[in-house]
Specification:
Enzyme class: transferase
GO molecular function: NAD+ poly-ADP-ribosyltransferase activity; tRNA 2'-phosphotransferase activity
Number of domains: 2
Number of helices: 7
Largest sheet: 3 strands, antiparallel
Protein name: Probable RNA 2'-phosphotransferase
EC number: 2.7.1.-
Order of helices and strands: EEEHEHHEEEHEHEHEEEH
CATH architecture of the largest domain: Alpha-Beta Barrel
CATH class of the largest domain: Alpha Beta
GO biological process, one term: tRNA splicing, via endonucleolytic cleavage and ligation
CATH topology of the largest domain: ADP-ribosylation fold
Radius of gyration: 20 Å
């Protein structure tokens, strides 16, 4: 169980004690609240801001006050929610999937969007010469012809390491094939790649001439991490099932 707490000296942290000074700090959110609000925040910034009455600008930025107001209106159980909770979630996100603009009290997601946003102002420096992408044998036959193109998400998402890509692939299939992207040559040929997070990079597309199957590497994954992946897959399957049932109900009316 992971709590969100705030150290007076070192700011917010996830856990029982501040990782810097060891103080317990002030309680902000329990494990359930942290998970629930984090998922809503990701949904608002990546997929459905209109459900919460939130407006994103062209670059995906949203006003933090609007987010808080939208969550409280849609889910009254969180009537105690404040700006500081959203800010603490963003600052302690281990994947670095958000950008925070404290001067203007706004936040945005830097990858994972299914709605159109302009992320061309993300950093383009320090791009590794090789990046990785998980796929299947069937998909690879398609990729060999047209390269990597955005699917449900509006950008192609690439991983920093083979391991990162392999774990991302496990969320979809049992044994993903990992592709290696020659980003150095792609950039030299005019294909811009952006640094979106600690281990995630995005591009509008990657042509097939810069893509090869990576040499296979044996990856050891802790049991706890595998359990989290399976839990996420089950949650996603339940969500899809609920959406399917809703569509069926509407078709019968």
């Amino acid at each position: 169980m992971v709590q969100l707490r705030e150290c007076e000296k070192h700011g917010p942290f996830r856990g029982d004690v501040c990782p810097i000074c060891g103080e317990e700090g002030k309680f902000l959110l329990n494990d359930w609240e942290l998970t629930a609000i984090s998922r809503m925040l990701a949904g608002i910034l990546r997929h459905f801001p209109e459900r919460f009455g939130v407006k994103l600008d062209d670059s995906g930025w949203a006003d933090i006050y609007q987010i808080v107001k939208g969550i409280k209106r849609r889910h009254p159980r969180f009537r105690w929610l404040k700006d500081k909770h959203i800010i603490a979630i963003v600052l302690t996100d281990d994947k670095g999937r958000y950008q925070l603009d404290m001067e203007n009290k706004r936040v945005r997601a830097t990858y994972g969007h299914s709605i159109k946003v302009d992320l061309s102002d993300l950093p383009t420096d320090n791009i590794p010469e090789k990046l990785y992408y998980p796929t299947t044998e069937e998909e690879y036959e398609y990729i060999k012809e047209i390269g990597l193109q955005p699917g449900d998400r509006k950008w192609v998402h690439l991983s920093k390491t083979y391991r990162d890509a392999y774990i991302a692939g496990l969320h979809r299939v049992e044994e993903p094939i990992i592709l290696e992207i020659d980003t150095k040559k792609a950039i030299e040929n005019g294909h811009q790649i952006y640094r979106a997070a600690k281990t995630v990079f995005i591009a509008s597309q990657i042509p097939p001439e810069f893509i090869n199957i990576s040499e296979k590497i044996d990856i050891e994954i802790p049991e706890e991490e595998l359990e989290k992946i399976e839990e996420e897959k089950r949650r996603r399957e339940k969500k899809l099932q609920r959406e399917l049932e809703k569509k069926q109900e509407k078709s019968l009316k």
